[in-house]
Amino acid sequence: MRLSSLYVLMAVVLAAPNLEAGGQPVPLPPSSPFKVLPEITIGDPKALVEIVMYFSPTCTHCADYEGDVFPEIKEEFIESGQVKFTMRLLPFHRLDYAVAKLIWSRGHKNVIELTQFFLAHQKDWLDPVLEDPKKREKLLKVALEQTAELLKISIEELESLLNCQDNTEDAFVKLFALRNGFTIKEIENAAEADPNLEDALTANHLQAASDFGKSLDYVPAFLVNGKVAKDWPKPVPLRKFLNKIKAK
C-alpha cells in the first residue's frame, strides 16, 4: 500500500503460531548513530531463500499478506527449512509507534506472536480511528463501556488511567490491548517515552533506504535474497524460484 493514501486518512485523524525469533541485529550504515533492534526472524538461518518484509502495523495490505499469504509460506517453505523469513517494523506515524511499543513491551521472544496478533485483529483497533470524529466518539464510548465492565472498574477511572480524552486515537489500541490480556501497568509502561526503542524503530527507515536505494514510501515491501521484489512473494513464484536455485 502506498503510504500517500494512508497518510491522507491518518493525517486527518492523528493531527487532531508461537514462533521463535532470531537475535541478529539489523545491519545499518557504519555512520548510523542509532542502536538497532534484534531481527524478527523465523526459519532456518541456512535456508536457500531469505525473504525480508517491511511492514507497518496500520497498513491494511500488510495485514492481508499476514492473514492470506504468510500461513501457506510458513507451512510449505519455512517449516521445511527452505525459507528464512524476516519482518522489519517500519513506523510512519504516532499510532504505528504506539502499536510497535506494545508489540515490543513483552520482550523480543514475544514479538512475532504479538506482531501477528495485532495484524490479525487490525480492524478492531484501527477501523474506529479512521471514522469521522462524531462516529469515532460514539465507538470510543462503547469500547470504554465494554472494557470497564470487563475490568470491573468505572468508565471514569479507565479514561483517567489511559488518558483517553487527550489522545482518542491511541485509546482504541490501548483498549484493544486491555481486552486481550495486557494489564494497565503494561500499557502505561509501553506509553512511556523510550528513546532507545523509538530511535531503533526509526533506524529501520535508514535500513530500508539502504536496501531499496531510496526512502521507502510503501509497505509491505519485500526483499528476496537481498533483491527488491516487484510483487508479493507467493507460493507459486516462490516454488519456481527455489527450483531454479536447486537446479544450479
Q: What's the gist of this structure?
A:
The protein is of the alpha+beta class. 54% of the residues lie in helices and 9% in strands. It has eleven helices and five strands, in the order H-E-E-H-E-H-H-H-H-H-H-H-H-E-E-H.
Please tell me about this protein's structure:
By secondary structure, the chain is α+β, with helices and mostly antiparallel strands. The chain folds into two domains: 3-121 and 195-247, Glutaredoxin (3-Layer(aba) Sandwich); 124-179, no CATH class. Helix content is 54%, strand content 9%. It has a five-stranded mixed sheet with strand order 1-3-2-4-5, with helices on both faces. α2 links the parallel β2 (49-55) and β3 (83-89). α3 (94-104) packs across α4 (111-120). The longest helix is centred in the N-terminal third of the chain and has 19 residues, at 60-78. Mean pLDDT is 86; it is low at 3-31.
What is the fold's blueprint, element by element?
Layout lengths: L2 H13 L24 E3 L6 E7 L4 H19 L4 E7 L4 H11 L6 H10 L1 H5 L6 H19 L3 H8 L5 H11 L5 H8 L3 H18 L8 E4 L2 E2 L6 H13 L1
Parallel strand pairs: 2-3
Antiparallel strand pairs: 1-3, 2-4, 4-5
Helix pairs in contact: 3-4, 3-8, 3-9, 6-8
